[in-house]
Design goal:
A hairpin with a 5-residue loop joins strand 5 and strand 6. The strands form two sheets. Strands 2, 4, 5, 6, 9, 10 and 11 form a seven-stranded mixed sheet that branches. The chain has a four-stranded antiparallel sheet with strand order 1-3-8-7, with no helix packed on it. It contains no helices and eleven strands. The radius of gyration is 13 Å and the shape is globular.
């Protein structure tokens, strides 16, 4: 059974940076991509960023392009989300998620597996 566990969330001032990590044990069978979704109170879950397991293809939500970077280590056991120039609207629970055999699944905000989440709070 695959496991995804996030870490690195916290409280930061607007304009600051945080780096989230996702520890992966066991690649989910048939999964084509891994990435990050987030959810804020009163809002629907939304796509943030995704990367293929090979690390060759990445995609970002328009709201985070140029500020966030998704990456992975060579062993494919840890994935990261570097978040710079954070805004108050970036606050929420961030989930590390993996897709099924559709590599674009995460872009719709759906997923096959996810971790428990890590809270990110950006203060003004």
């Amino acid at each position: 059974q695959a496991q995804l566990v996030e870490s690195g969330g916290g409280l930061v001032q607007a304009g600051g940076s945080l780096k989230l990590s996702c520890a992966v044990s066991g690649r989910p069978t048939g999964s084509r991509s891994i990435g990050w979704l987030r959810q804020s109170p009163g809002k629907e879950r939304e796509f943030v960023a995704t990367i293929s397991w090979s690390g060759t293809t990445a995609a970002y939500a328009d709201s985070v392009k140029g500020r966030f970077t998704i990456s992975r280590d060579n062993a494919k056991t840890t994935f990261y989300l570097q978040m710079n120039n954070l805004k108050t609207e970036d606050s929420g629970v961030y989930y590390c998620t993996s897709s099924g055999n559709n590599p674009y699944q995460l872009l719709s905000g759906s997923y096959n597996f996810r971790g428990p989440g890590t809270q990110v709070t950006v203060s003004s």
